[in-house]
Amino acid sequence: YTAHSICTPSRAALLTGRLPVRSGMCGNAYGSQHSMQPMVLACDAANGLPLNETTVAESLKDAGYSTMMIGKWHLGQQVKYQPTRQGFDHYFGLPYSVDMGFAYGNDTMEKPSQFEVCHPVPIIRDEKIIEQPADYSTLSQRYAAEAVEYISTAASSNKPFFLYLAFSHVHVPQFAAKDRIGTSERGYFGDSVEEMDSTVGAVLDAVRAHEGLSTNTFAFLTSDNGAIPSTSNEAYAGNNGLLSGRKAQIWEGGLREPAVAWWPNTIAGHQVIMDVAVTTDVFATFAELAGASLPSDREMDTISMLSILNITHAGKRGDARMVSAGGNTRNVSFFYQGCQLWAVRMGPWKAHFFTDPKPVFPIPQLNSDPVTTSHNTMAVLDDDQLTSHPTAVGGTPHNPPLLFNLESDPSEDFALTGHDDV
What are phi and psi of 148, to 5 degrees? Predict the structure, then answer.
């Protein structure tokens, strides 16, 4: 699971190992960049990730690691909140989302009203703007080049390293290199996915290129929230499959994400692990592998994933389940809408204390007209498709809460009764 169903809070949780309500990186007003506590930090945000928070980058840096971030930050665009002030030695990327200003190479949006009323999107290196407006058609290739160079430099120095690569794919608007547009069967969305896949491959190839590095490198890939599926099968939209809901909702479709863990000769390939983990657990996992310390002066919400991945401190597969940072593998997960607790999962059970209406989406068809024609016509989004998000306050209260067994009902279609013991 992602720890929150929308950009800024989920990224704060990933980096701090804490629910965003603890750091104040949550809010009850979507897109209110002038608010002192918006749900999402926009392009003119006054705030950012508090500097008294400890990030996983800071913890690893204290343990002797070099650190770099590439990609979307979205935790405060002012210099004092940027990655280089939050534990990263170097940074290359965008300070916020790709829909928050004008940029070149933007393939699925063309009306000015669809952009946040802000300055053009910049590319930042460390703390200096090096390009504005950004050119999205070359962005992924540049991310790959930066990552490859960083890995090569770190490998040559024999210093352990931590690379945080945060893609803008597949947030709207969709984009890709000019020679990739129109090459997938899934329209612009497919082009974006394939470009991201290619970039991940380039990064892992860079690790493999250095003798002995791949067997001493742990890679973890996941997402910060669910998709916003299309209401009419447009080519720019994702799909959450059988999971109900969407980004910015507490239904499974807004929170439940795939994750891939990679460590040759240590994590067995071609396996599916059904244990529950949350993105806050990245902190404890990386800290345990690196021999780094977790902050002891605050409440933490992070539990090492090493036990469910069935690996030992020495980097060898074993049968024993390890004692994690929290003492157990994860059994309870808390889900907030804004700063308000809306749902809890415990074992197979999920209880909703508040809900938003479930949107209904069609199943995408690979060869439907909107997909096959999207390469020749601009897919223009309506303003309300870009700015409409479920409210972060209010919702429908439930007392007793709506209860679902996610093992038998992952779509959350059948609320159960008669389970007072749960």
Answer: -60, -45
